[in-house]
Amino acid sequence: MTTGLLMPLGSLKALEETLPNTEFIRVHKSFIVSIHHVKSVEGNELNLGKVRIPIAGTYKEKAMKALF
């Protein structure tokens, strides 16, 4: 079974710049997520089903705009 998590070889900043910002959002210094996999937002976490990803304060406003 796969969780859908990927570990890029380059920097997340470089990856973030290549991904379409209409489908992916940076939510933490260590995480970029697909908008389509977000099931819900619970406090400062994204629920992706079996995986929960923290939302850092510096990314929260932008993430909420992208999701809602």
Side by side, the strands of the main sheet go 3-4-5
The low-confidence parts are none
Largest sheet: 3 strands, antiparallel
Mean pLDDT over the residues: 89
- End-to-end Cα distance, whole Å, is 29 Å
Strand content: 25-35%
Coarse morphology:
globular
Counting DSSP E segments of at least 2 residues, the number of strands comes to 5
Q: State the helicity in percent bands.
A: 25-40%
Structural commentary:
By secondary structure, this protein is α+β, with helices and mostly antiparallel strands. The relative contact order is 0.20. The protein is 26% helix and 26% strand. The longest helix has 11 residues, at 57-67. The N and C termini lie far apart (29 Å). It is built from 2 helices and 5 strands, in the order H-E-E-E-E-E-H.
